[in-house]
Amino acid sequence: MLKIQNSRKWHLFALGAALGIAVFLLIYGTAPLNVANDSFCRGGFIEKDIQQHYAGWLFYRHSALGWPLGVTQAVNAPDGVSIAYTDSIPLLAVLCRPLAAALGGTFQYFGWFTLGCFALQGGFGALLCGLFANALFAQLAGALVFTVSPILIERTFRHSSLGAQWLVLAALYCYFSCRQQGRYASAGLLIINVLAVGIHPYFLPMTYAVTLAFLLEYAVTHRQWLRPAALLIGNMACTAALGWALGLLYGTATSGGQALYGYFAMNLNALWNPIGVNGVLYSRLLPAQNQVNGNYDAFAYLGLGVLAALPVVLVLGRRRILSCLRRHWALCLVCAVLTAFAISNTITANGVTLATLPLPAAAVKLFSVFRSGGRLFWPVYYLLVLTAFAGLARLPKGTLWVALFAAAQLWDVTPALIQRHDAMRNAQTVAEFPTALTSSFWQAAAGRYAHLESVQGLQADSLQLALWAADNTMTTNDPFAARYDEAALAARRQSTLDALAVGTLQSDTLYLFEDEGTFLQAVEPVKDAAWCGRVTSADGRCSWYVIAPGLQGQRFDALCTPYDADYPLRLADYTDALWNRGVLDSTRKTICFKDSPFARARLEGAAYLCANGQEYPILEIDDHDAGWLMVTLEIDDATVLWDEELTTK
What we know:
There is one protein chain. The chain has helices at residues 6-28, 39-43, 49-62, 90-103, 110-130, 136-147, 150-155, 166-181, 187-199, 203-222, 226-246, 304-316, 318-327, 329-343, 361-367, 378-393, 398-427, 440-445, 462-471, 486-501, 516-523, 597-603, and strands at residues 71-72, 81-82, 346-349, 352-356, 451-456, 475-476, 509-513, 530-536, 543-549, 560-562, 579-580, 583-584, 590-594, 608-611, 614-622, 628-633, 647-648. By secondary structure, it is of the alpha+beta class. Strands 6-5-7-9-8-10 form a six-stranded mixed beta sheet, sandwiched between helices. It is elongated, with a radius of gyration of 28 Å.
């Protein structure tokens, strides 16, 4: 490794940062830097996740400031949740809150945050390359490869906080430079670890893996354990303190209703599989490979330049590499652990699950803290890129080889960069994921209620619904977050159902149901004190079942079906091994409805079930299974009743 003088180091960092800024501007332009432009946040750039990040910020911005600083009581009300779990970059949200209040109006910080990530990616990429190459051109060519990294581009403005991959590069730079200088104490690693918890918790195992490797190697080499241990404990204490202040330890936010560890695992083809989310292809030459389950979230395509360089470097520099592996044994060890965690106990290759290794339930629960375990491969990923660069830089005419390496890498991934450029440009004019909340009902309800109560289930278009609630300064019990207490939420929802059952309504609360059957069970006692009914989207794909106090008697557009004497019956959308969307598979003559006063009133005493002008005789009504009404008809195939509005006679 080469030593970099301080003045040259800062000069190199500045040039690398300028390169990162140039890459950002070429791909995304200046539109995201306008803090009053939130179109790409609301429209859902590439996918809808950024709506969650922006909604978390909006709720936090308009809620009362308390302790911990990063908690908003407006989400998962009344308990609240840390906006770390809405991926809203809690440290930046806390710092930007006074500025947003002073400026007023629309304020989004995701554009400037991402610009900073690209600048720091370029800066630390250049510093890393400067440890292994003398020529400035080679250093900047290497920095370019880090700046156009497919895993960085894949996350940018999709999972904005995960764009801070410069944290990994910075940790690796501190590791190699401190090793070079023979130092065991690194203020840089302390700062990186603390910043990581303020940006996204997923970076913690990555930066701490590098920190642990650094301290372990020093402790073993110098036979000094106390000071490295004290430094590690000090790092962890400072990290925990900021995490506590930002609310990562707040409450019992341990559940999220997502897939467990192993679902978002890294496929064994990840390094050469160029397919990103929504089918974006990151290679001009290599074809898309198959994957299964949540492998897409472990995207780790190295790029053609790196894939071509690594075999050459490994063959020509095998002796040097073996020596390097022995010298950096602890770093190799933590990389092996991170790789194993990323692959997980569900081992997949292409479109096949090769094996599922048994794990104790306690281990699955513990590992599920980082459900998307494939992301933890990133330090190994960047070390592979660095290995390719460093090996080429040491060859005769190394600068030329590095230039060819960077050119091949850039040529390979350019189509994906162009796609991202076009996606951001389109996001300024067209909402990629337009809101489904277009009915006049939503206009009438806007500003009328203080709280949105999701009584049951996950509401349709939940992120646009969260944005609507945030815009109207409402609170919501819907957590729409990565972590929350599912048991507590279920208990609160049951309390709400119990209150509705005895006719108790909160006049400042808008009640929403995901499932029509549950709505029909709850609505009868309160129907006279609220507008009750079904609201749909214009395309019919989304439905909300609503109890809206104070709006009784009002009429809305054709997207609204009021709960009255003409309200139709619909099959329960129930599927299991025996039932298919509410139709018994074995005979296709028996259908089911959720038991409710409404359904009983329609069915009991009726002789026919009617749909589309056809009358089907009712042969039997069976209620022996609590909560369900099973109706047998004289019909050839009851699946013709799917999605139909039914009446009785």
